[in-house]
Every structure is written in C-alpha cells, then in structure tokens.
Specification:
275 residues; Aminopeptidase; 6-stranded mixed beta sheet; 8 helices; globular
Length: 275
C-alpha cells in the first residue's frame, strides 16, 4: 500500500510498503529538515530506501546529508532537470548484485540508439484501453510478472490506476490482448512514465512493444508533455534495447529500487525530451 504524507516543511512524500521505500515528491521549504523527517519515518517503519526526483537546488542540500545522485530526468522542471536521489538505510539495499552485467546491457542497448522504424505486423491492432479491458490487462500483467511494484492482481487495481492519470494502450491479435503498456502522467511536472510494459511470451520478438511505445509517445506529445521516461529493469536486454531504439537517452540507475519478478531489481532510467 502507498500512503501520501504531508510533512511539517510542506513537503510531500509517499510511503511505499510494497517496495520498502519512501519517495520524495518535493522537499518543501527546508530540504534538510524534510530529509531528516523522511529518514525518521523510514526507520520507524523498517523501510530501507528513500528516493525521488528533486530540483538541482534541493539536491545541493540533500548531498550534504547522505543522499547520492542516481539519475537525471530532463524536462522535470520548467527551468531544469529533476535530480534522481537516493539514501539507503541498509548496506545490502545499497549494493547492486549485477553491476558488470547491467553496464554491458546498457552498452549493447546504446549501440542500437535510434535504429528502428515503426511497423506493426499484419493482423495486429493497437488501440487505447477502456475500462472494459481492465480484467484482461490484469491477467496479461500477472502472466508476465511473478511479483510487481504496484497492484495488478485484479480489474479493480487496474481501474484504480486508470482513475489516477494512468493511460493504458494495447496490442490485440484476433481480439486478444497480447501486449500492454501504460503512461503514468504527472500533470504537475508535465512528464509521463512509460510503464506496465508486458508482452505475452508467444508474441515476443515481433517489435510489438516498440510500436506500442511509439504510439504512446505520440499521445503524450499531443498532450503537451515535456518529456517521457521509463525505469527499465536493468537486467532486461529486451526492454533497455527497446527504449534505446526509440532514441531514449540513458540517464542513470536506481539500485534495488523495487521488488519485481520475484526479486529486488536495479532500474535503468531512460529519458526522451518531447518539447
């Protein structure tokens, strides 16, 4: 369960029990005091990571109180990027288990930067999801992911996401949903996270996800968003390459950031400026 908290410094944070972390939404009037309050809250609940995107000015303050920089999200603010920060309350949480492999995957992905032309195979159809699709979306996601950082285990969970600025888009084959992804829109910062990316095993290798993401990207551009980004599993060559081929730029890595597919995963940050 994710619970929003308003801090005495007028900062907003989320407590994310599922992923054993606290997320900073903003640092309020006193970044140092906000950081201390976030640490106290995390420690009181046994949470082992604090993370989020903050302004470059707030990053200067947080860098003095134990936070590290893990990524840069271009277009997050009107006048500059969001700085992806982290502070670890556990030594194990701070250590990546697969650094060499993940670095090699980024290198392979970046070698294919922009090398793709959108083409959808015959008999496949792309369309926006409706509320009537919620149950089938849930089933597709559950088939692909043993565990997931956000609730996906019911139609109700998907409908709740849809009601909170999450827009799903689908690929169908003979009226069956075979691939799905979503845009989680942040209307305050005018960015969107490309997430919930899943393709059924029998339909992989056809470029469906890349085509789906390109359609979603166009939709976000039409909404006037500044940039889109994703947090891709750092051990997934397919997903990292998909975003590189779509000309996203690699912008950092969040260590052990979420619990997905049955384990803690490092997540690579890929960003694309739209306007």
């Amino acid at each position: 369960m994710i619970v929003r908290h308003r801090m005495p410094t007028d900062a907003d944070i989320y407590v994310d029990e599922r992923n054993c972390r606290v997320k900073l939404l903003d640092c309020g009037s006193d970044p140092t005091a906000t950081a201390a309050a976030a640490v106290e809250l995390a420690e009181s609940r046994g949470l082992t990571k604090i993370w989020g995107f903050v302004s470059p000015v707030d990053w200067v303050s947080l860098s003095q109180v134990g936070f590290t920089r893990e990524g840069i999200l271009d277009g997050y603010f009107d006048d500059g990027p969001g700085i992806g920060v982290a502070r670890y309350l556990s030594g194990d949480r701070a250590r990546s288990k697969h650094t060499a492999m993940e670095d090699a995957i980024v290198e392979q992905a970046c070698a294919k930067q922009g090398q793709w032309q959108p083409e959808l195979p015959e008999r496949f159809v792309v369309r926006p999801a409706t509320e009537a699709d919620a149950g089938e979306i849930s089933l597709v996601l559950q088939q692909v992911f043993v565990t997931y950082p956000t609730p996906i285990d019911s139609a109700e969970a998907i409908l709740n996401a849809m009601a909170n600025n999450v827009f799903f888009t689908l690929v169908e084959y003979d009226s069956q949903i075979v691939s799905v992804a979503s845009t989680d829109v942040d209307p305050v910062h005018l960015v969107a996270e490309m997430t919930d990316c899943a393709t059924l095993p029998d339909f992989r290798g056809k470029g469906l996800m890349r085509y789906l993401l390109s359609v979603m990207e166009d939709a976000m551009r039409a909404k006037g968003l500044r940039s889109v980004f994703t947090l891709a599993r750092a051990t997934s060559i397919a997903m990292n390459t998909a975003f590189a081929r779509l000309d996203y730029a690699y912008k950092g890595r969040f260590i052990n950031n979420c619990y997905i597919a049955g384990d803690w995963e490092d997540m690579n940050l890929w960003v694309k400026i739209l306007s």
